[in-house]
Write a structure and sequence with these properties.
about 210 residues, single chain
Length: about 210
């Protein structure tokens, strides 16, 4: 728990895990405490290394986010002449919304690292380790989201540059729409026929 006194410094990870886990998951506690341990012993001096490692992951996530923003700017420029077309505008708007989300999450990472730094002198070591673990996991997720966004933007630019591909996809969309319309029409006809048959049967019964 976060309110454990900061006396884990110098305790073997195994024993420290038993203290903080209580009735919880000792295995997870050991894994978390290993973040602030050296040679199997929890050390406050290990916090700097832990924060340094987390900061590297955060920096990578921030860089990938910046690259995604640059790729989207390039894509908008490439799509300038057709940006008003619904398929193009829709995809650009979707990319923009996703980028806003990734940027917001990336901005929060730096604040989280600063919070850990503010705890390193006398904060609870288990709480510090858990925060480092959370920020590292969050940064990895941000990086993955930024990379996925870049990949999709690249595919979008390739689609923009390939007129034949655009025509094929448009034709496929038209065919799919036509098939859907035919299915609806068939369903309507079937319902109409069933209704007519039911009405005829009712009339016969009345007569």
């Amino acid at each position: 728990p976060d309110d454990e006194p900061a006396d884990l410094d110098g305790a073997p990870v195994e024993r420290a895990a038993a203290v903080v886990a209580d009735d919880g998951d000792a295995g997870e506690a050991r894994e978390t405490l290993a973040i602030v341990a050296r040679d199997g012993v929890v050390r406050r001096a290990a916090v700097d290394d832990a924060v340094g490692n987390a900061s590297l992951v955060v920096t990578t996530a921030e860089t990938r986010t910046e690259l995604a923003a640059e790729r989207l700017a390039d894509a908008r420029a490439a799509a300038a002449l057709v940006a008003d077309l619904p398929p193009v505008a829709g995809r650009l708007d979707d990319f923009e919304a996703r980028l806003d989300d990734v940027e917001s999450r990336a901005d929060a990472l730096g604040d989280a690292v600063q919070e850990v730094l503010g705890m390193k002198a006398d904060g609870d070591l288990y709480a510090i380790a858990r925060r480092v673990k959370r920020v590292t996991t969050a940064a990895t997720e941000v990086q993955r989201a930024a990379d996925d966004l870049q990949f999709e933007i690249d595919s979008f630019e390739s689609w923009l540059a390939d007129a034949d591909r655009r025509a094929e996809e448009l034709a496929a969309d038209v065919d799919a729409l036509a098939a859907s319309v035919d299915e609806i029409a068939a369903a309507v006809e079937s319902l109409a026929a069933e209704s007519a048959a039911a009405a005829k049967e009712t009339d016969a019964q009345i007569e």
